[in-house]
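Please, structure for the following, as tokens.
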Amino acid sequence: MAFLDTLRQWDEAISCVDRQDLKQALEIFLSIEDPNSKISFNIGCLQLVEQKLDAAEKAFDFSICKDEHLAVAFFQRAITFYKKQRFQESVSDFQLALKALRGNQLIDYKALGLRYKLYACEVLHNMALAEAHLGQWERAQKNLVKALEYKTDNKLNILDRAMQSILKQNIFKAVEFPSTALFRPNKYYVAQLDKKDYLGKAKVVASVIPQDHFSGFAPLQPQFEKGPDTPKEPEVLRALESEAHIVRYEFLPETSDELAVVPGNIVFVLQKGSDNWASVVFNGRKGLVPYNYLERLEMSLGAKQTQEESPSREPPSRPERKQGVGSTDDISVRCNSSSADVEPKEAQPADRSCIVKVYGTFNVAVRVTSDCTYSMLVEKMSKKLKRSSSSFTLSFTSEENTVLSKDTDMVSVWSRTRNRCLKLWCHIKELQDTEMIFVARHSYESSNPEDLTFNKGDTITLISKVNQDWLEGYCEGNTGIFPASFVEQLSINQ
């Protein structure tokens, strides 16, 4: 689905929410193909309002998979687990939400299109509530004491009431997300949905081609019976010698070597491949376009004027391009997904094989034999997760009091197998004890909701490197990407 179509449906669904028509809004969101993290989050929130807990859990799974730093998605999935009375998984997701806050008192999602502030004290408040349901009263009390360190004045009464309930070993009420607070599309992009024609339709004034009625933009075309004396570039010569085609359907590129075109564009086909992709020139740019999106243009007397009309049919399917052979590793991973069982899509195991399902920060399904050693199991996980074997531990429960090691009796481990399936928990260690800090050399402000806005002199903590020109970081409770040329490294805190 084109970006403009997704944006249009997103905006229409938000309008339904504003009219309190939540069911219609949910239907529109569900009709969006390949929704992004924010739209998946919106779907989960609306499913939660409808008490469709399984569907809500699945939607938050998709949201987290596409943005593993979205703390509010962890918070909402933890609420979903709490409503399903899966309290241990709820505690785990509240911990991940707190981790995504990165020690900040709150995250204000206004810059990302969500009118909501996620407070660390509220995350700890709900974590203590889930622990209370598990009978872990001491841990619940410790988390409430920790919540007081992150408190704000308007949250103090909530924490005080929760502390009084904990001391009496009573259950208290959870802090929930507002039902109609959803991610909204960027106002600037929505404003551009209605196309405006400031110039009007082009008209041919003079042309060496008799009865030339074509209007639009096209690559260089000969307007002289004899060409100029100066030599042309090879690509221009090839374009003039090749066949002209009119674009019948909009095509949005997915890779850097593909070319964006819209209906009515005139392109010159340099070469057509056997895979139904054509190398074309348009406005001096060269790229790949599906050949079945094009129609040969007859530049002759009485050329068809109907070629300028917009297509009424859906575009043909995108042709497949030859890609490298995918990994044949027998491990399937879904980052930060639900703790519900994830059945790996594999062939049926051999007589001595079994499936090891590992839950935690990463959900992993591994196929091994029943005589697999601890080292072999860890090696497979290390290869797929792209982490060293020392960066994670395995245990029988979500707590790290039963951690497996190379000295563990694997015979007793495999004895826990049920129906050729063994369940373990994975705990990721905090290996990155160093943080790269940058200071802003210039102020940066962008209307793009994914960007990080900051002022000159602000300090920014690096999260990841997007490419050589863009970085991802957080500053004053906000997270986003920013140009690397606007900052310089300050120090590395050991």
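Confidence is low (pLDDT under 50) at residues 224-233, 300-312, 323-350, 430-434. Residues 3-190 form a domain with the Serine Threonine Protein Phosphatase 5, Tetratricopeptide repeat fold (CATH 1.25.40.10).
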